[in-house]
């Protein structure tokens, strides 16, 4: 029955994309089906081929080691702070305590510094270019949008656009939407490591699922974007993938410095968003509870209750087992309306528990992406700084990109759910 539900989910997701398409007659169905085939191949390799599964599990263990390395830096800075190691037991932070802001900040800073080093030596660009060429060959998309979407699986949503800076000004609107959608559907390496380690701390093996989600999101975003906004113009980079490998850092020390500084900005943004959004949610829930009690003193109306009802049909159609549908729907609503960090926090601390392995797989992939309303503003502002002449187009395409990024994540999650 779950697989049948998943087929309904794929039909629903593609149907929504078709409904919002601005030119249904120009949809390239070869691109659509080849992109979905690529998603299926990625999922099959990860979940059904033992050597590949073991490789991704090893990557997951590597992510845990990154957090351990990051802790060395954090313990030097925060070593004198007393924290609650276990309920009722106070310990020095350096002795193994956990403070969310300290640990998350350290991990993001380390990953961003490492990415900057890889970028300086040209490793990141070459890995992205190889994968982009493969996707370009399979799906016949333009070089610029292939590069951007593959880069989004490794770096942040604005940083991915830096890799195609020379092409941004001349990209077609369809290419621009595809690039924005890919950045919203994927998730940056630093944040992915944080989520994987949040899961590991809670006894959840999320790392292979999250890596798979980010890889599947690249072709998935192109599939949805090319349905919503088919290509009708002449692309400057059709059929070719060319990436500038030259580093803008002076040397490796400069790369580490800039990477750590950028990581700190990202970490502070994450912390600020969490404080702000969680506080606003508390205010809204307080007001909703008061409203609910006006009708029934035992009815505790809340945002989670509303999300659970609104996103229930989508969660069910994606193949989520019946016992988890309501909670998965709640997390889908939190991710889209608030941000993915709140959704992952509630998933890993089990305040919104998921009991089935299949439900955990589907929701992990579905919420692994930057597609939320605040990210749209970040994209318009960030990419607009890189290509000021495209700011108007970015603003017009923002909500379409949010729709495409969200549906792409749902499509990846549904396909993965069918295959397990």
Automatic annotation (TrEMBL):
<feature type="transmembrane region" description="Helical">
    <location>
        <begin position="6"/>
        <end position="22"/>
    </location>
</feature>
<dbReference type="Pfam" id="PF07670">
    <property type="entry name" value="Gate"/>
</dbReference>
<feature type="transmembrane region" description="Helical">
    <location>
        <begin position="401"/>
        <end position="419"/>
    </location>
</feature>
<feature type="transmembrane region" description="Helical">
    <location>
        <begin position="98"/>
        <end position="119"/>
    </location>
</feature>
<dbReference type="InterPro" id="IPR002668">
    <property type="entry name" value="CNT_N_dom"/>
</dbReference>
<feature type="transmembrane region" description="Helical">
    <location>
        <begin position="266"/>
        <end position="289"/>
    </location>
</feature>
<dbReference type="InterPro" id="IPR011642">
    <property type="entry name" value="Gate_dom"/>
</dbReference>
<feature type="transmembrane region" description="Helical">
    <location>
        <begin position="176"/>
        <end position="198"/>
    </location>
</feature>
<feature type="domain" description="Concentrative nucleoside transporter N-terminal">
    <location>
        <begin position="8"/>
        <end position="80"/>
    </location>
</feature>
<comment type="similarity">
    <text>Belongs to the concentrative nucleoside transporter (CNT) (TC 2.A.41) family.</text>
</comment>
<feature type="domain" description="Concentrative nucleoside transporter C-terminal">
    <location>
        <begin position="210"/>
        <end position="417"/>
    </location>
</feature>
<keyword id="KW-1003">Cell membrane</keyword>
<dbReference type="InterPro" id="IPR008276">
    <property type="entry name" value="C_nuclsd_transpt"/>
</dbReference>
<dbReference type="Pfam" id="PF01773">
    <property type="entry name" value="Nucleos_tra2_N"/>
</dbReference>
<feature type="domain" description="Nucleoside transporter/FeoB GTPase Gate">
    <location>
        <begin position="102"/>
        <end position="200"/>
    </location>
</feature>
<keyword id="KW-0472">Membrane</keyword>
<protein>
    <submittedName>
        <fullName>NupC/NupG family nucleoside CNT transporter</fullName>
    </submittedName>
</protein>
<dbReference type="Pfam" id="PF07662">
    <property type="entry name" value="Nucleos_tra2_C"/>
</dbReference>
<feature type="transmembrane region" description="Helical">
    <location>
        <begin position="29"/>
        <end position="47"/>
    </location>
</feature>
<keyword id="KW-0812">Transmembrane</keyword>
<feature type="transmembrane region" description="Helical">
    <location>
        <begin position="359"/>
        <end position="380"/>
    </location>
</feature>
<dbReference type="InterPro" id="IPR011657">
    <property type="entry name" value="CNT_C_dom"/>
</dbReference>
<dbReference type="GO" id="GO:0015293">
    <property type="term" value="F:symporter activity"/>
</dbReference>
<keyword id="KW-1133">Transmembrane helix</keyword>
<dbReference type="GO" id="GO:0005337">
    <property type="term" value="F:nucleoside transmembrane transporter activity"/>
</dbReference>
<feature type="transmembrane region" description="Helical">
    <location>
        <begin position="210"/>
        <end position="229"/>
    </location>
</feature>
<dbReference type="GO" id="GO:0005886">
    <property type="term" value="C:plasma membrane"/>
</dbReference>
